[in-house]
Structure formats: C-alpha cells, structure tokens
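queue> pop job 88
queue> type: inverse folding (structure -> sequence)
queue> payload:
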C-alpha cells in the first residue's frame, strides 16, 4: 500500500525526482518523505516528524544578535510545525518535549517556549494544513 502511495508522488511532476527509502520494522512500513515519516497503521495514514540521522537541530541561539522578532518566533514556528505535521495526537507532547529540550540548550526562556506550545496547541491541524491561520495567531513583536 505504501508503495502505491509513493508512486503517486512520482506521478505529480516528472521533473521532480524522489528517492525511495522504506523500513519494515515491527511490521510497520514507513516512508520518509521530505521532513515527515508516513506510515499506514490499521488502514489509517499516520504522519510524524522525520529528521535525518545527521540532523544536529542547530537552532539559532537565543542570545544571538538577530532581530528580537526572529528569536521570539522560532519556538512558535517549530511548535506550529509539529502541530501541523504530527497526526497522532498522543505523539504531539513527545515531539513538543523534544523541541523544548533543544531550545533550552540554545538558551530560549522556558516561558517563551511554553507560550509558543500553548499557542500552537490552540490551532487545529486542519487549519494549519489549509493555511486558515488569521493574524490573531501571530506572536507579539511580529
């Protein structure tokens, strides 16, 4: 079934070249596609975050000399990305905690991270995917 799903991507545009990688661990077929893992579990497509084994998650340090609005929006953008990609609701807190640990290492304030997670969790996955996000969801100083 996943092979059919993959070949669908090939048919979208013949100028785009996709590589194919799959895993059959624990009877779960998984296809990494861009920054996602796609698998079919009990007949339902499940999407999760995918990172290459070489990804260092080297986010911009909070104490860098970048504009304040850039630094303030990184946690929210990452949290919104998780909320939009991860389809299994029980995995979202795990992915948010992983993000939190990475940002803490980069000296982001805990409260800023918590606010970003809460704001992202206030959005529905469907609205994020469809782009139905209004200006009221922007973070302060943007």
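queue> result:
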């Amino acid at each position: 079934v996943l092979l059919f799903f993959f070949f669908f991507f090939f048919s979208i545009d013949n100028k785009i070249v996709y590589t194919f990688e799959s895993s059959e661990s624990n009877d779960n077929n998984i296809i990494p596609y861009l920054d996602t893992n796609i698998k079919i579990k009990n007949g339902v497509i499940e999407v999760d975050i995918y990172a290459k084994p070489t990804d260092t998650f080297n986010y911009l340090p909070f104490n860098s000399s970048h504009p304040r609005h850039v630094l303030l929006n990184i946690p929210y953008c990452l949290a919104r990305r998780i909320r939009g990609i991860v389809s299994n609701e029980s995995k979202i807190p795990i992915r948010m905690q992983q993000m939190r640990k990475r940002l803490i290492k980069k000296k982001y304030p805990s409260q800023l991270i918590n606010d970003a997670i809460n704001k992202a969790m206030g959005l529905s996955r469907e609205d994020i995917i469809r782009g139905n996000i209004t200006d009221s969801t922007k973070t302060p100083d943007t």
